[in-house]
């Protein structure tokens, strides 16, 4: 009896692996798609923010309020210390 349970376990693992492999590939493709879509969305939003900042600098009515709201979403990298040239 014990031997037949071991054989069933082996086949069960084999069956489960045959399900897992394509699902793993699907999840990897899904992750890639999410990353690409997120990157494109961020690039578009950043371009919009840059345009609004430009409009605010040109004193377009209402642009400064929008730029201030968006500034919270795009905090920037901050101003780092300038690096010294080796020498």
Structure description:
75% of the residues lie in helices and 0% in strands. The chain is mainly alpha-helical. It has a domain at 15-71. It starts with a helix and ends in a 16-residue tail after the last helix. 2% of the residues are buried. The model has no long low-confidence stretch (mean pLDDT 88).
Would you summarize the structure shown here?
This protein is an all-alpha fold and 87 residues long. It has helices at residues 2-57, 63-71.
Which key features would you list for this structure?
mainly alpha; rod-shaped; 87 residues; 2 helices
For the termini, the CA-CA separation is: 79 Å
The structure class reads mainly alpha
Average of the residue pLDDT scores: 88
Query: What's the tally of helices?
Result: 2
Strand content: under 5%
Largest sheet: none
User: How many strand units?
Assistant: 0
Spans of at least 5 consecutive residues whose pLDDT stays below 50 are: none
Helical fraction equals: over 70%
Rg over C-alpha atoms, rounded to the nearest angstrom? 27 Å
Rough outline: rod-shaped
The SSE string, one letter per element, is: HH
Question: What's the SSE blueprint?
Answer:
Elements: H1 2-57, H2 63-71
Helix pairs in contact: 1-2
């Amino acid at each position: 009896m014990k031997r037949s349970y071991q054989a069933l376990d082996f086949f069960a693992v084999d069956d489960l692996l045959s399900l897992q492999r394509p699902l793993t590939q699907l999840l990897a493709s899904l992750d890639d798609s999410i990353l690409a879509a997120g990157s494109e969305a961020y690039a578009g939003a950043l371009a919009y923010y840059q345009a609004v900042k430009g409009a605010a600098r040109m004193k377009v009515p209402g642009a400064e309020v929008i730029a201030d709201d968006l500034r919270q979403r795009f905090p920037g990298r901050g101003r780092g210390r300038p690096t010294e040239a080796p020498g």
